[in-house]
């Protein structure tokens, strides 16, 4: 193999001022093999980064050299990787200590970089609004400082018991804000997580989705499926006490199914394990105009392109103000595309809840197929 790797860079070095050189290098350029990649218990290199590089190399026919630099620090926040300009754009003051020590050295020259992969976010759980600004601003700033519109690929954080409430779900949705920028790809780890281990062992699925993104977007390799269904809008057709909302998706490749892939079953991604509650597991909800939030039953539309949320309200005449799916630490994942990609969790307000114009347009909802129904009140 002509793959070459660089060991973990900079761990142990942080700085309050910009550095022109990397101060910590655990491993210089080395041809990839078991000792140089694994080291002692994988100390030398990021597993996802290595598998990503291997898959890109193989996807290009095994003839294009791939250089990888593992430049990471576990348990850190996005702010630590951000420049003063990013802080200013997001209404704050400061300079990331890891930006100064581990990113600035690459801007000297600057170094030519084809792309970057990013697997981070856990340390920002509970601060989704901040992340929604810092993350895309950081990507754009890196590109300016490196003088390079490089590809950027990120991993949506895995399912794990981060604690009660919607904070982890909101962070995942905030991560998707990076897609407002051009040349950004992604992978998701929601369906390969572990409720008791923040570092799930299935790195292969995560890396393959990420490498498929890079092969498609950078190198134009055709036929690779990596785009998950992403919420785009919802239409309210509620009548009387019967609440009915149809959710549509962007980047839907194939159709939606309740067939759970084997790797997701292995991770029990489709199960809400005890003692977690429906809120911990992100069961689908409908927020109503009287302030009430109810659990929803979910079905797949007849054409397989939409999800239909339904519930029975306590009184007549209520409308839906917001919908959610998987908005939690451990997002129970029961809906996938026929290509084995999970529906991305979301929380979103309806664009025109209760509006006459909006209601008049709600005539396009496909009726759900009863045999595709998925009951969310149980742990099955």
- Taking pLDDT < 50 over at least 5 consecutive residues as the criterion, the unreliable ranges are 353-380
Average pLDDT taken over every residue: 88
Judged by helices, strands and strand pairing, the structural class is alpha+beta
Q: Helix count, per DSSP?
A: 9
What order do the SSEs take from the amino end to the carboxyl end, as H and E?
EEHHEHHEHEHEHEEEHEEEEEEEH
Largest sheet: 4 strands, antiparallel
The N- to C-terminal Cα distance equals 46 Å
| Percent range for β-strand residues | 15-25%
Give Rg in angstroms: 22 Å
Name the shape in a single word.
Answer: globular
The count of strands amounts to 16
Q: What topology, given as strand order, has the largest sheet?
A: 7-8-13-12
Helix content range: 10-25%
Description of the molecule:
The chain has 380 residues and is of the alpha+beta class. The protein has nine helices and 16 strands. It has a four-stranded antiparallel sheet with strand order 7-8-13-12, with no helix packed on it. Strands 11-10-14-16 form a four-stranded antiparallel sheet. Strands 2-1-3 form a three-stranded mixed sheet, with helices on one face. β10 and β11 (293-295) form a beta hairpin. α2 (47-59) packs across α7 (203-217) and α5 (128-146) packs parallel to α6 (167-175). The protein is globular, with a radius of gyration of 22 Å.
């Amino acid at each position: 193999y002509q793959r070459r790797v660089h060991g973990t860079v900079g761990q142990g070095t942080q700085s309050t001022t910009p550095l022109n050189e990397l101060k910590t290098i655990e491993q210089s350029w080395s041809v990839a093999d078991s000792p140089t990649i694994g080291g002692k218990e994988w100390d030398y290199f990021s597993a996802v980064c290595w598998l990503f590089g291997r898959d890109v190399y193989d996807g290009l026919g095994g003839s294009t050299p791939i250089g990888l630099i593992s430049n990471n620090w576990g348990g850190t926040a996005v702010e630590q990787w951000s420049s003063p300009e990013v802080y200013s754009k997001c209404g704050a003051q400061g300079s990331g200590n890891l930006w100064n020590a581990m990113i600035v050295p690459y801007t000297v020259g600057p170094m030519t970089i084809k792309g970057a992969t990013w697997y981070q976010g856990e340390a920002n759980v509970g601060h989704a609004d901040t992340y929604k600004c810092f993350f895309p601003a950081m990507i754009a700033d890196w590109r300016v400082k490196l003088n390079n519109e490089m590809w950027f690929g990120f991993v949506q954080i895995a399912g794990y018991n981060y604690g009660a409430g919607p904070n982890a779900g909101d962070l995942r949705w905030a991560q998707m804000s990076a897609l407002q920028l051009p040349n950004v790809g992604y992978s998701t780890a929601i369906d390969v997580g572990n409720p008791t281990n923040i570092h799930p062992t299935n790195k292969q699925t995560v890396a393959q989705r990420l490498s498929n993104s890079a092969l498609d977007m950078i190198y134009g390799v055709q036929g690779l499926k990596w785009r998950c269904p992403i919420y785009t809008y919802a239409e309210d057709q509620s009548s009387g006490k019967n609440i009915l909302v149809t959710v549509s998706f962007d980047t839907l490749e194939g159709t939606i199914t309740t067939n759970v892939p084997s790797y997701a079953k292995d991770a029990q991604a489709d199960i809400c394990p005890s003692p977690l509650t429906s809120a911990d597991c992100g069961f689908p909800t409908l927020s109503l105009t009287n302030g009430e939030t109810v659990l929803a039953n979910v079905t797949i539309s007849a054409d397989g392109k939409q999800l239909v949320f339904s519930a029975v309200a306590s009184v007549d005449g209520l409308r839906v103000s917001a919908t959610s799916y998987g908005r939690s630490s451990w997002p129970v994942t029961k809906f996938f595309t026929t290509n084995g990609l999970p529906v991305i969790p979301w929380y979103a307000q309806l664009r025109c809840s209760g509006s006459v114009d909006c209601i008049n347009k709600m005539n396009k909802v496909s009726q759900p197929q009863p045999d595709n129904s998925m009951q969310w009140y149980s742990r099955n």
